[in-house]
Amino acid sequence: MNNQKQQKPTLTGQRFKTRKRDEKERFEPSQFQESIVQGLNQTGSDLEAVAKFLDASGSKLDYRRYAETLFDILVAGGMLAPGGTLSEDMTRTEFCLFTAQEDLETMQAYAQVFNKLIRRYKYLEKGFEEEIKKLLLFLKGFTESERNKLAMLTGILLGNGNISASILNSLFNENLVKEGVSATFAVKLFSTWIAEKDINSVAGSLRKVGMDNRLMELFPANKRSCEHFSKYFTDAGLKELSDFARNQQSIGARKELQKELQEQMARGDPQKEIIVFTKEEMKKSNLTEQAMISIIWTSVMSCVEWNKKEELVTEQAIKHLKQYSLLLKAFTSQGLSELSLMLKIQEYCYDNIHFMKTFPKIVVLLYKADVLSEEAILKWYNEAHLAKGKSFFLEQMKKFVEWLKNAEEESESEEEETD
Q1: Which of 36, 142, 175, 179 would disulfide-bridge 146, Cβ 3.0–4.6 Å?
Q2: Which residues contact 152 (CB under 8 A, 6 or more apart)?
């Protein structure tokens, strides 16, 4: 019998050493807040010193975990409760965005503080955008001065591309819109943004996030019209924004009209009914005949599946356009409208390569159908053509243009003989 004592099993494992630079002080939000508040109280209103303090503190404090707390303090001086009020039981500082001077220069200096912080700690970028979205939802809880400062800061940050324009979605909150808070805030924000950059910066950023057609939503449903928007922002000194919104509204209306026309054509509605509908919409949307003929051309060419073979597409195009010549004729009563149509045809044939050789046949067809006049064709040929495929199309049209000129000369000769 073996009297040796049986060894007990032991647990073994690998111990990991934490590098000093990875060690960060672990705090509860209140302790984190006290550390930030203390540092801000020491740096005071010297924003260069604030930026240096925040840069250095990121290696000791857990910014990743407490990003919301950090941004609340920098903006409002302490942690914000739901609705935008400061938490009563927490430490706060008097050195923050909301207590700063209400002028553009100071707000630009604060924007630099945020910019430096996020450049240094890239992981804060998303948290900062979330913070701005939250602050915009809390606008009713802030004073007028605090709103103005936040609007200026947001406009500067948007102008410099530090945050995405998607944060503006918070301004479409029903309660903010209903009480007029969103529209008032937007005036200050867009004024700052345009002053910082220009209207093209605004337009590009809004388009990028699909908000270029949503500006009307800053107003309640009963005031959501182009006229009201235009007057409100023009009176506030933002005519550029009014013009942009009007233009976007017009583009939106054109797209809807084009879609409706395509549906009518697909159903095979009588052309006379389509003409009546289109004239009513043209009047309602305040569109010129030149704009209307462009929409009609696009609709006509989009409502059919085109053959990909060059030799077959010409026959298909002539047959299709002959069918809609009455509609095209109804909206080319002016020389400028005819020229607009000529340019649309040139552009379409250039962009759709299998239509390149079809161009002169389309022009001849529409000339015979009294849609295009010889004056419009000659003006296009001599001076008003586009650069797209210029030499190719001019060469194709050469014989027909010569025939038109000869016919015109013969007509003039006959008139002289008659006289």
Answers
A1: 142
A2: 102, 104, 107, 188, 189, 192
- 269-407 fold: 1.25.40
**Taking each helix axis from N to C terminus, what angle separates 67-76 and 29-43, rounded to the nearest 10 degrees?**
40
The DSSP symbol for 8 reads P
Instruction: Domain ranges for the chain, please list them.
Output: 29-215, 269-407
Burial of residue 202 (CB within 10 Å: 0-12, 13-18, 19+) is buried
- Tokens read off for 202: 């605004």
CB-count exposure of residue 339 (10 Å: 0-12, 13-18, 19+): buried
- Listed residue (130, 127, 135, 132) closest to 64, CA to CA: 127
Q: Does residue 16 or residue 392 have the better pLDDT?
A: 392
Measured CA to CA, the distance from residue 325 to residue 372 in angstroms comes to: 10
Q: Is 80 helix (H, G, I), strand (E, B) or coil?
A: strand
Could you give the 3-state DSSP secondary structure of residue 65? Answer: coil
- Which two tokens mark 37? 């508040």
Q: For residues 77 and 36, what is the distance between their CA atoms, to the nearest angstrom?
A: 10
Pull the structure tokens for residue 128: 């900062």
Q: Which residue has the higher pLDDT, 416 or 217?
A: 217
Containing H/E element for 396?
A: helix 390-418
Rounded distance between C-alpha atoms, residue 93 and residue 80, angstroms: 13
As a whole number of angstroms, the distance between CA 276 and CA 243 comes to 29
Please state whether the predicted TM-score (pTM) of the whole model is above 0.70.
Answer: no
235, 225 Cβ separation under 8 angstroms: no
Q: Where are the alpha helices (DSSP H) in 46-143?
A: 47-57, 67-76, 104-120, 124-137
Please identify which residue in the block is written with the tokens 């009047």. Answer: 283
Q: What is the DSSP string of 125-181?
A: HHHHHHHHHHHHHTGGGS-HHHHHHHHHHHHHHHHTTSS-GGGGGGGG-HHHHHTTH
Could you read off the pLDDT of 148-170 as tens digits, one per residue?
Answer: 999 999 999 999 999 999 999 99
